[in-house]
Amino acid sequence: MANQKKCNEGDFLELGPSVGNDGNWKLHLYRRHRADHVVEAGIGGIRPVDGPLQPGEIMCRKRSDGRYTVDEDSSRSGSGPAKITSDAYRTGWDSIFGNRQVMGEA
Fold it and tell me: Is 17 exposed, middle or buried, given 0-12, 13-18 or 19+ CB atoms closer than 10 A?
């Protein structure tokens, strides 16, 4: 077998030219190289992060060589219950479980 070059690059994206906009998303051709050396290509959108990631979204950090490193934690599917911390959730929680009078204490 020929000598195979080892890759220690990890999971990264290379963006190609912009192909348009969709709302606040800027659409680009991309190539993604995963840590297990699977390469995928397609059209994807990038946008500034302004809140929690939606399903299917990943967070990337720009590298000095122009590529984007994929944040490993953002690409994993979650396990366990959702972590909801909105004001509406807290208000609902308090109306159901909060401010109860303790009765029958001896």
Answer: exposed
Q: How far apart are the first and last CA of the chain?
A: 81
Q: In this structure, what DSSP letter does residue 33 have?
A: E
pTM (global) more than 0.70:
no
Distance of CA 41 to the CA centre of its chain: 18
Quickly count: other Cβ atoms within 10 Å of residue 99's Cβ.
6
Cβ pair 3, 54 in contact under 8 A:
no
The per-residue pLDDT for 10 is 84
The pLDDT, as a whole number, for residue 1 is 43
Distance CA 61, CA 36 (A): 19
Domain locations in the chain as residue ranges:
12-76
